[in-house]
Design goal:
Strand order of the largest sheet: 1-2-4-3-5-6-7-8
CATH superfamily: Alpha/Beta hydrolase fold, catalytic domain
Strand content: 15-25%
Radius of gyration: 15 Å
InterPro entries: AB_hydrolase_fold
Helix content: 25-40%
Mean pLDDT: 90
Order of helices and strands: EEEHEHEHHEEHE
Protein name: Alpha/beta hydrolase
C-alpha cells in the first residue's frame, strides 16, 4: 500500500500499479481506515486490481477521487470501475447516470449496502430513474448487491429492474455471494 496526495485529497493505493483500476468508496474510511485498507488489499490480491481508496468526507472528495483514479492509471481512463458502499454506492450509481455529462466513461459500478431513501452525497438528491442507456456511450455494467434486510433487498431488486428496463446491463448479486465486506 502507498499513500499519495491528490489535489485536496489523500488516497491510499493497493495492488500492482499496472493492474486495472478499481475506485473503492467506503464510508468507514472515516472511522476505521485500517479495516478499509485491509479490504482494499484483499480485493487487490484476489481480484488483481489496483485499488484506489480516497479518504473522503463529502461528494466533492468523491469526484476528486474519480479524477485522481482516471489520471493515475496506466490503462484507458474509461476502463475505471467504482465500488461504493452505503451512500457511496448510491453515488456510484449516480456517477454512472451522469458520466456523459461529466465527460467520463466507466466500465462497471457496484452499489453495496444501500438502503431505501439514501441520498447521493455528490448531488444531495435521491437517485433518479435511469434514462435509457445511450448506445454511443461506454457500456457500463451495473451491479447491485442485495441488502441484508428485506427493505434493502427489495430496493436493490427494484433498482436493478428499473436499470434493466432502461437498457442498462444491470445485475442483482445475492448478498451471500458478495465477498468484498469488512
Amino acid at each position: 500500500m502507498s499513500t499519495q496526495q491528490a489535489p485536496g485529497l489523500q488516497v491510499s493505493v493497493h495492488g500492482h500499479p499496472n493492474a486495472d483500476t478499481l475506485l473503492l468508496w467506503h464510508p468507514l474510511v472515516r472511522t476505521d481506515p485500517e479495516a478499509v485498507a485491509a479490504l482494499a488489499t484483499r480485493i487487490a490480491g484476489r481480484g488483481g486490481f489496483r485499488v484506489v481508496v480516497p479518504h473522503w468526507a463529502d461528494g466533492r472528495d468523491l469526484l476528486r477521487s474519480v479524477r485522481y483514479a482516471r489520471t493515475s492509471t496506466v490503462h484507458p481512463p474509461d476502463a475505471l470501475s467504482v465500488v461504493g458502499y452505503g451512500e457511496a454506492g448510491v453515488a456510484a450509481l449516480s456517477l454512472a447516470l451522469h458520466q456523459r455529462r461529466l465527460g467520463i466513461g466507466l466500465a462497471r459500478v457496484t452499489c453495496v449496502d444501500a438502503v431505501p431513501g439514501t441520498s447521493d452525497p455528490i448531488s444531495g438528491q435521491q437517485l433518479p430513474e435511469p434514462p435509457a442507456s445511450p448506445a454511443e456511450s461506454v457500456a457500463t455494467a451495473v451491479d447491485l448487491i442485495a441488502g441484508a434486510d428485506e427493505a434493502a433487498a427489495e430496493w436493490a431488486r427494484h433498482t436493478v429492474d428499473d436499470w434493466q428496463a432502461a437498457g442498462w446491463a444491470a445485475t442483482l448479486v445475492p448478498a451471500d455471494q458478495f465477498t468484498w465486506r469488512l
